[in-house]
Amino acid sequence: MNRPELVNVCDCTLPEAENHFQLSFKEKIELCRLIDKLGVSSIDLSPIRQKKIDRLLVKSICSAVKNASVAVPVSITDDESVRITWEALKEAVNPRLQVVVPVSSVQMEYLLHMKTEAMIRTVTKGVTACRELTANVEFIAQDATRSDPAFLVKVLSAAIEAGAGVVTLCDTAGTMMPDEIAAWLENLKKDLPALENVTMGFFCSGELNMADANAVSAIRSGVREIKATTCSGTAISLPNIVRLLNIKGGSLGVCTKVGVEQIRRITGQVGMICQSSGKKHDIISGFEEENKDSDYVLSIHDSIEAVMHAAEKLGYDLNADDQQKVWKCFCQTAEKKDHITLRELEAIIAAEAMQVPPAYHDVLYTISTGNQIGAMAHMKLKFHDQEIAGTASGDGAIDAAFNSIEQATGRHFELDDFQIQSVTRGREAMGETIVRLRWEGKLYSGRGISTDIVGAGIMAYINAVNKIVYEEEEA
To answer: Global pTM?
Structure first.
């Protein structure tokens, strides 16, 4: 009896989520950390565009992801992109460089202004540059199902000869049916026998809600790597394809290392993170007090000057870069609702302004409290690579937790404000906290989201402290 062949499931949730949600630096890291627990073979990230911010993000994700390969696309029009991307990525468990190009004539000329011969030369150059740094190189042919078959064979052949070990074919438009996918792949394999020497990957858009069925058809035709996402309806569904492979893999002659045990819980948590910047629900904690400026509201009709004036009213002094981030998120939020309160603006500022890599991280804590005893917290965490710890009492679990953080860090910060509100309803509702710390006359805000409201408060507090430390270390 033949042993089943392994099908790698690669997660592309983060790039898909970034098209629909405004995720903070910390939320992106947490999303990747959760996905890594599923046992996927690779986690795809977006390309590095803003050099300083995106390089920090990639490095932070590489540190957080302990099992999966981390894959980042390079720019084929920027000679420095390969080097910059590799420097950010190289500490990952199994770093992968991706060369992503459109291969249909319409997209080649519209997006890159290239003809076929120029594209082949560019692909060869890009894959070769990546191959000099790592053997884990993936060539991704976007819109491959609408490309000219003869050109597709040439460009794939060039990528393979240059050293690509994985060749991913994309039905970017998502307009093909399963039988069409099977016929297209079989013809391509006949025209390009070299595909037998590499791992074939497949991605399909969910335009016709046929992505999962197309993925099964692609697997039947020899594809051994599937790009899937937990974002419902946008592409191949990771939960669906994993369940299918676990149940029907034997009859298909394939298997996957991704188990089904944690999928429902983890994809639910990922969904909560993605939706956290959207609709908010009822206030659920006595910590939330009425804002003295509750009548002060903003709308889509307000200018950036008005929004920044409101930020100053809250006590924030934002630099030009953070102003643009806050303004962009404000506009996206204002399109979905009639007005935005100062509380909501503050949540935007906490999520968008000055997102930094964590100096304090790997937080572990124990809280003891009750109606017969006072609250006591023990905090254990790392400052860069140094382990630190603190134990303190307090007037309630949150106060004890914050005091233990101060004891561990050896620093005292003035707590200017602390807010709690729910993000979702139900017994397992996600709670969001906003912490404002004042340091040397300046306000720093942090944001935390968790089903454990004490944990959310700790996350928010550490997030704010990390912003203070980042400014000190960069000075």
So the answer is: 0.61
